[in-house]
Amino acid sequence: GGVYRLNETTDTWMDLSNGMKIGQFYRIANAGNNDVFMIGGTQDNGGRKRLTIGEWVNANGGDGMEVAIQPDDMDTYYTTYINGTGLQRTTDGGLNTVDIHQNIGQQTNGQWVTPYDLDPNNSNVIVAAYDNIFRTTNQGDTWEMIGTNTIAPGEGFTDIEIAASNSDIIYAAYHDYLFKTTNGGNTWTTVNLPANAPITRIAVHPQDPDK
């Protein structure tokens, strides 16, 4: 994860890694109210957070995976570990974190990079796609299940996306299958695609939720 020096007198570590090109990012996110602040999840190097141009600090340990920043408050962001475990929330810029994954309250199976998405219209609302899809309206304090992988039960979804123009419309992907709900997860349909190829990411048009 880099090069660090220990001061044995003060028992503190100094990060000497600045300038080293050693990070492989799985996911990145930019703050909506600050075009410099960025957070990313990296392989074997944990979460990395950019405070200013050229200044990166640690955000979380282990493998950093999917990340998200509350659009209007860059001190509130989310990080996670492999398979969606260790989904953490901070509201004070990382000084304190809360494990909101455990609030789901049941066994979850997620992809290596487990996807989750903040609702563009209400960032207190998050959907997280494990083998089941869960939704929270209070930043992860409580969750409800709104979908399940009917194609391969027990397998995690590969991506999930909430439409910015209509929060009730959500897309979820599993390999070459694309699923859609128009009622917030009460019912799901399979979207017919022109070709069979693994879906890695979903992007929804900001005004047209069908595109």
Commentary on this structure:
This protein is mainly beta. It is built from no helices and 18 strands. It has strands spanning 4-7, 12-15, 25-31, 34-42, 46-52, 55-60, 68-69, 77-79, 88-90, 98-99, 116-119, 122-129, 132-136, 144-148, 159-163, 166-174, 177-181, 189-191. The strands form five sheets. A four-stranded antiparallel sheet has the order 3-4-5-6, with no helix packed on it. A four-stranded antiparallel sheet has the order 7-8-9-10, with no helix packed on it. The chain has a four-stranded antiparallel sheet with strand order 11-12-13-14, with no helix packed on it. The N and C termini lie far apart (40 Å).
Short description:
With 211 residues, the chain is an all-beta fold.
- What structural category characterises the helix and strand content? mainly beta
Strand adjacency order, main sheet: 3-4-5-6
What's the order of the H and E elements? EEEEEEEEEEEEEEEEEE
Q: Tell me, what's the shape? A: elongated
Assembly status: single chain
Tally of helical segments: 0
Low-confidence parts lasting 5 or more residues at pLDDT below 50? none
In whole angstroms, how far apart are the ends?
A: 40 Å
Approximate strand percentage? 35-45%
Number of strands: 18
Overall mean pLDDT score? 93
Question: What is the percent of helical residues?
Answer: under 10%
Radius of gyration over C-alpha positions, nearest whole angstrom: 18 Å
Taking the sheet with the most strands, its summary is: 4 strands, antiparallel
